[in-house]
Design goal:
Layout lengths: L2 H14 L5 H13 L3 H6 L7 H15 L4 H5 L1 E4 L2 E4 L9 H12 L6 E5 L5 H8 L5 E6 L2 H14 L4 E5 L10 E6 L14 H6 L13 H9 L4 E10 L5 H10 L3 E7 L5 E8 L1
Parallel strand pairs: 3-4, 3-6, 4-5, 6-7
Antiparallel strand pairs: 1-2, 7-9, 8-9
Helix pairs in contact: 1-2, 1-4, 2-4, 6-7
Length: about 280
Amino acid sequence: MEYRSLYAIGKEKLAAAGIPEADLDARLLLEYVCHTSRNDLLVHGDREVAETEQQAYEQLLAKRAEHIPLQQLTGEQEFMGLTFSVNEHVLIPRQDTEVLVEEVMKNLHDGFRILDLCTGSGCILLSLLHYSNDCSGVGADLSEEALEVARKNAEQLGESSALFVQGDLFAPVEGKFEIIVSNPPYICSDVIPTLMEEVREHEPMQALDGGADGLDFYRKIIQGAKEHLCGGGQLFFEIGYDQGEAVQRLMEQAGYREVECVQDFAGLDRVVFGTLW
């Protein structure tokens, strides 16, 4: 079958299944299977697709039609200009989280030690190490399956200065850090049933559920960080769009100073950070 015709079939199947951006996903899956680029659809649309590639494409289409996330099917996601491996055990890195990384980078100096709590795929810590000099870091997560993904990403990126440890928040963590960063679970428990099926059914629940008000992990981390931050060290959080004031207040009440809230590209509150003196 011609490349262009196969793409049209894929687009139709995904649209019929109610997949958002069916056109884009159909194209990306076809490129993944055929090892092609967007240019092939425009310039080489009449090329014949091998039967094995067509079969592989149809299998992926069937899975995507079941609302399995595209990134779990291809096994990767770009973040901060880097390619990270992902699977069902980790949250898929999102562009919103790049705002968190960029804010940390503004305050990151050579030789700093970084702690990344709820590290998941390791995308936050590994991006910070990749774009800094002589820094080292620890990524902690409750899920050993997630840490396997993080270690794989560290190996792929050649980041040997990252250590990944398993445990509940600060339990496996030793020493002090100039920077502590976290994108913790922050979705209110009663909101989770309303999430997109891709997220609700296929991403790890323990990385989503932040308790009744979505703030459970912020409370724990804000207090626990006091024992692990150097004097003048900073704590950075990604937050939900409606949690800025609440997280700022929690940090200020705990004694953090110069607490700020930063908005994302859509103008929504996305990052809160403060300094512990």
